[in-house]
Amino acid sequence: xxxxxxxxxxxxxxxxxxxxxxxxxxxxxxxxxxxxxxxxxxxxxxxxxxxxxxxxxxxxxxxxxxxxxxxxxxxxxxxxxxxxxxxxxxxxxxxxxxxxxxxxxxxxxxxxxxxxxxxxxxxxxxxxxxxxxxxxxxxxxxxxxxxxxxxxxxxxxxxxxxxxxxxxxxxxxxxxxxxxxxxxxxxxxxxxxxxxxxxxxxxxxxxxxxxxxxxxxxxxxxxxxxxxxxxxxxxxxxxxxxxxxxxxxxxxxxxxxxxxxxxxxxxxxxxxxxxxxxxxxxxxxxxxxxxxxxxxxxxxxxxxxxxxxxx
Length: 311
Hints:
This protein has helices at residues 10-20, 35-48, 66-71, 94-110, 124-134, 148-162, 199-210, 212-217, 230-244, 287-306, and strands spanning 2-6, 27-32, 57-62, 75-78, 116-119, 142-144, 174-176, 184-186, 249-251, 254-256, 264-266, 269-272, 275-279. It is of the alpha/beta class. α4 links the parallel β4 (75-78) and β5 (116-119). The protein has a six-stranded parallel beta sheet with strand order 3-2-1-4-5-6, with helices on both faces.
């Protein structure tokens, strides 16, 4: 699998390092506004390639040469964009990222492209929607990382409540909806004496997930803030692997939803070589999920209206 990575912030750098050591990646074509920033990073990665299983090369490109990078790639992972300032929300940077990168640069770059786009930049649901609408790519091949990270945090938190030694990968649970505090936790049912987790445990798990990023960032020091990095990078890797191996893995990516106009939000989706192969909508019929998704839809519509994209 040949991966185009767009962006060289903390997430972009972490993703480049992780992808370069993965057995399903053959090439990385790395795009950034400044090619000079990429040069030392690429040299460092290339020095490690003799020790990695399959990656042959890492090639840097300036943003103006992104077309050449895409021509040589199967999947595009977008991590570029304005970071969320302290005290702000992901929605606050939507218009900046739309006007400076996604609308004028990314949408034309991927027009008629034959690959798959994974959006990681925030706000991920609105930006994945924008890129789908302004490019010619079918919905199956443009989606966001969505609530993959929330799902991982929820599984970790539930596993910790069940047993201190139980890994989160053994826990069935999903987070769906939007990648913001409105996400909806779908807990496991067959756990506990009453057929499910107690309500107070579910509330505590949800609180842990909602504040997970803040807990990490608060551990930083003045002038050297911490960033929530590892689960995002691992989420990127999981999605790219599902595409590369045609794994038919079920992941909570943010995708176009039938019956909701042009809204994007996360439900469990089967991911494979063609992108989103199937959306599992049964979870949406659960009463607790329906109510939560209404909040997600309302707040996304409010954002899009305030940005002049819906009337």
